[in-house]
Design a protein that fits this description.
With 301 residues, the protein is an all-alpha fold. It has 14 helices and no strands. Helix 1 packs antiparallel against helix 11, helix 3 packs antiparallel against helix 5 and helix 3 crosses helix 11. It is globular, with a radius of gyration of 19 Å.
């Protein structure tokens, strides 16, 4: 039926739209960090803005559905928020300690961790050939950033944070799949709990680090980029991916992260002058072939 086709198209559009939005995140981070703001403060302010904006929307327009969100769904959302908060913090550290392209390469391992954790925890068994698609896309991503890899101590630190962020990102996506479908009749209470609990976790970390004085006092320009991180990067970008998990397995949704390094590297070259190299062009084909391969294998399962 025509309506079914349009609905299927809208669902499929969630992932590329989310990937396109999230590709801007490392650029926003670099621009927000020009005043040498600590990574923890960037992460906390980003989530505080996202939680405040989403709270206002839910309390004004979807209050009734908020009170119905409880039990197992609430616990899963709170745990997802813990993973999400530390994922955001470690990713900011990765962007600060290495190139945008390198940080995105390591983040692109999310579908690998998603496939493994999904199989172990929620019994999401990928199609055997999906691993070939993941390997193909990862190889393309490696081509994109190969010339940027410099194994100096600073970049190794950024690589470490990027890998930790990928593991936490996979766990955060996975928790969304554990929420009972009935509890997700309305999507917004879930993401509000996730973003709010992530904000609380980072606030505790800010207190322990003795950085509360750095939460405010930024320039207008820095606040602008922090708002972009909160509203565009989090409320829009991450919410699109969360919504996509209603329809796709964790590793399928995560596979679209593999498209982000190409977009981010191009944006970094144009906007902040970070070196652009021809490996990006060679990497585009295997990345997108891998994503399409996984999508076709898993679409009917």
């Amino acid at each position: 039926m025509p309506n079914d086709g349009a609905q299927s198209l809208r669902r499929m559009a969630l992932l590329p739209a989310g990937a396109m939005v999230l590709a801007w995140v490392p650029i926003f981070i670099r621009l927000a960090a020009r005043e040498e703001i600590p990574a923890l403060i960037i992460a906390f302010d980003r989530l505080l803005i996202a939680s405040a904006a989403l709270s206002a929307y839910v309390l004004f327009f979807r209050r009734d559905t908020l009170w119905a969100f409880r039990g197992r769904a609430l616990h899963a959302a709170c745990l997802a928020g813990v993973f999400f908060g530390v994922h955001i913090y470690t990713y900011v550290l990765a962007v600060q300690y290495t190139t945008v392209a390198n940080s995105m390469l390591l983040l692109s391992t999310i579908p690998i961790f998603s496939a493994v954790l999904g199989h172990l925890i929620v019994r999401e068994k990928p199609h055997p050939l999906s691993y070939a698609g993941i390997a193909l896309a990862v190889s393309g991503t490696a081509l994109v950033v190969w010339s940027d890899v410099r194994w100096d101590p600073g970049h190794l630190t950024g690589d470490f944070y990027g890998l930790i962020s990928a593991v936490l990102g996979a766990a955060y996506f996975l928790m969304r799949r554990t929420v009972p479908r009935k509890a997700m009749a309305d999507f917004f209470p879930y993401i509000l709990v996730v973003y709010t609990s992530a904000t609380v976790v980072l606030f505790v970390m800010v207190l322990l680090a003795g950085q509360t004085a750095r939460i405010i006092g930024h320039s207008a320009e820095t606040w602008f980029w922090l708002w972009m991180l909160g509203l565009i990067g989090t409320v829009l970008g991450h919410s699109l991916f969360n919504k996509a998990l209603d329809y796709f397995k964790t590793h399928v949704a995560g596979s679209w992260v593999l498209t982000e390094p190409v977009i981010s590297a191009i944006l970094a070259w144009i906007i902040i002058g970070e070196a652009f190299n021809r490996h990006i062009l060679w990497g585009v084909i295997p990345i997108y072939l891998g994503v399409v391969w996984i999508f076709r294998l898993e679409r009917g399962r």
